[in-house]
């Protein structure tokens, strides 16, 4: 058996099926499978290979009386990629579908000994991310992210949203802060976009009433926590003609219900198998005003600007589970001191603190979304830029959007990786992206 006959192997790949598709095929039919080897076992005149592809595992049974000898099995190693032609049979093994091999070929050189295993420490696994993701438990995270985006798009397209694609190289920091990546743009200073905030508001001013974008965003945060990335996929929505921030909250709540319901319908068994969690679908997400949140979490978890700490988020998450039997909560009416200049101001708290018509959505004690009603009136917006100590000249083009008429508007940004992290109850958001970026990691 010339397992190095690459041409024959490549030819067989034309008619390859996925392992999962064996369920649709009658027994004793010829099939062609391809994937990588996860186990090899030799017993006398018979050998067994467990073959894996993206859809599942199958047992490849290799008999000496078909191949004359089994010496070629010694050429195989774990994680070697092969193609197999054989007969699909009703095997004895209950755990795997079984194929009796008739032809086997390498489709690349035999794999070297792996540099990682399931016990390797986290950073080393990330160094060899492409190998780590061959584990179906890990690859499920990436698959869920893909389908979550699909479900989000389904909901939005079904509700007449327009998808936009805004620039990621911009002339002004979108949040008005310092956490931006500066780049040299043909000898001009430019930045990587923190969000599509300005452009989605521009789209509303252009006459589009409901828009969204799912795209990369960049934050130059010197943060080494399990919840931060310097590059992430942001899901952003903006809606015109709103009456208050509650209109935005209602849309986000419906998206959460739709997405979690679809994930549960399509992936419940896999999620239970690998992560042993139940997908929570909220009926009604509670809404708690920030001044009440302060009382729940205690003053030690309130930052100087009125924001709350990550520990405060966890405390609130536990409170909501006990009090409302819910994994989600909206924190509404944030203080002006903790919000960007473009948030619309709201009613004062009991102590006189100025609030904004804004909200955060927490999922199991972690913020996954921030949104607000925007200030759309040119003169007030100009004053709020000055009030934040920012230079209006740096926001010239943004301000122009509102000089020639603008409707009321509001929207939110949503962290897809954080959503999947909390849904699966995994420890680090880096596990929820294909290749993570943080202050120390620029490779692979």
Write structural notes for this entry.
This protein has two domains: 6-106, Nucleic acid-binding proteins (OB fold (Dihydrolipoamide Acetyltransferase, E2P)); 126-432, Bira Bifunctional Protein, Domain 2 (BirA Bifunctional Protein, domain 2). The strands form three sheets. The protein has an eight-stranded mixed beta sheet with strand order 6-10-11-16-15-14-13-12, with helices on both faces. A five-stranded mixed beta barrel has the order 1-2-3-5-4. It contains twelve helices and 16 strands. By secondary structure, it is an alpha+beta fold. Strand 1 and strand 2 form a beta hairpin. The model has no long low-confidence stretch (mean pLDDT 94). The two termini are 37 Å apart. Helix 5 (136-158) runs antiparallel to helix 7 and helix 5 packs across helix 12 (416-424).
């Amino acid at each position: 058996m010339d397992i190095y006959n690459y041409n024959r192997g490549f030819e067989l790949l034309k008619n390859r099926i996925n392992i999962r598709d064996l369920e649709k095929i009658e027994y004793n039919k010829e099939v062609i499978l391809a994937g990588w080897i996860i186990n090899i076992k030799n017993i006398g005149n018979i050998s067994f290979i467990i073959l894996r592809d993206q859809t599942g595992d199958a047992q490849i049974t290799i008999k000496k009386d078909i191949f004359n000898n089994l010496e070629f099995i010694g050429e195989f190693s774990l994680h070697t990629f092969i193609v197999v032609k054989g007969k699909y049979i009703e095997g004895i093994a209950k755990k795997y579908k079984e194929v009796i091999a008739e032809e086997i070929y390498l489709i690349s050189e035999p794999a070297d000994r792996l540099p990682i295993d399931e016990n390797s420490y986290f950073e080393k696994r990330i160094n060899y991310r492409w190998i780590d993701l061959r584990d179906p438990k890990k690859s499920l995270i990436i698959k869920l992210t893909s389908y979550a985006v699909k479900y989000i798009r389904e909901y939005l397209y079904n509700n007449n949203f327009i998808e936009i694609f805004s620039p990621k190289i911009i002339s002004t920091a979108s949040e008005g802060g310092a956490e931006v990546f500066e780049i040299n743009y043909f000898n001009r200073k430019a930045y990587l976009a923190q969000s599509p905030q300005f452009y989605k508001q521009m789209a509303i001013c252009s006459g589009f009433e409901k828009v969204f974008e799912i795209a990369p965003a960049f934050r130059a945060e010197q943060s080494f926590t399990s919840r931060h990335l310097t590059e992430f996929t942001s899901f952003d929505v903006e809606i015109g003609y709103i009456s208050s921030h509650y209109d935005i909250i209602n849309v986000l709540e419906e998206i959460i219900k739709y997405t979690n319901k679809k994930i549960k319908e399509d992936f419940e068994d896999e999620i239970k198998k690998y992560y042993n969690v139940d997908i929570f679908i909220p009926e009604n997400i509670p809404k708690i005003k920030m001044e009440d949140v302060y009382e729940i979490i205690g003053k030690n978890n309130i930052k100087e600007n009125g924001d709350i700490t990550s520990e405060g988020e966890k405390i609130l998450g536990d409170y909501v589970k006990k009090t409302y039997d819910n994994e989600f909560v909206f924190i509404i009416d944030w203080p002006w001191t903790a919000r960007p200049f473009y948030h619309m101001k709201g009613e004062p708290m009991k102590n006189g603190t100025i609030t904004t018509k804004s909200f955060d959505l927490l999922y199991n004690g972690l913020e996954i979304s921030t949104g607000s009603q925007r200030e759309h009136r040119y003169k007030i917006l100009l004053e709020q830029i000055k009030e934040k100590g920012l230079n209006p000249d740096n926001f010239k083009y943004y301000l122009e959007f509102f000089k020639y008429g603008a409707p009321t508007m509001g929207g939110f940004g949503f962290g897809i990786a954080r959503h999947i992290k909390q849904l699966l109850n995994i420890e680090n958001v880096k596990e929820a992206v294909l290749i993570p970026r943080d202050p120390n990691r620029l490779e692979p």
